[in-house]
């Protein structure tokens, strides 16, 4: 589970690469999933993106599974 950290602007989370709880930069990005231009405006979904500040490992997870 993510926790806030009093240090630099970020969250501490478990990093599989480091095998430690490390500082992560966490953001939400809106991504277009459709490759068809006429449907692109209806296929935007939010993704939670996190990047380990120690090793640089980056991962994302779709937030809306509707």
What's the average pLDDT? 84
Helical proportion, percent range: under 10%
Strand order across the largest sheet: 1-2-3-4-5
Largest sheet: 5 strands, antiparallel
Estimate the global geometry from the Cα principal axes: elongated
SSE pattern, N- to C-terminal: EEEEE
Termini, distance in Å?
23 Å
* Estimated radius of gyration: 15 Å
Strand content: over 45%
Number of helices, where a helix is a run of at least 4 consecutive DSSP H or I residues: 0
Give the class from helix and strand content and strand pairing. mainly beta
The count of β-strands is 5
Q: Uncertain spans, ≥5 residues at pLDDT below 50?
A: none
Task: Supply database-style keywords.
single chain, 66 residues, mainly beta, five-stranded antiparallel β-sheet
């Amino acid at each position: 589970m993510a926790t806030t950290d009093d240090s630099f602007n970020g969250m501490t989370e478990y990093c599989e690469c480091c095998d430690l709880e490390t500082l992560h930069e966490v953001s939400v990005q809106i991504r277009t999933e459709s490759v068809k231009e006429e449907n692109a405006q209806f296929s935007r979904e939010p993704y939670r993106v996190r990047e380990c500040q120690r090793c640089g490992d980056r991962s994302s997870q779709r937030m809306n599974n509707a």
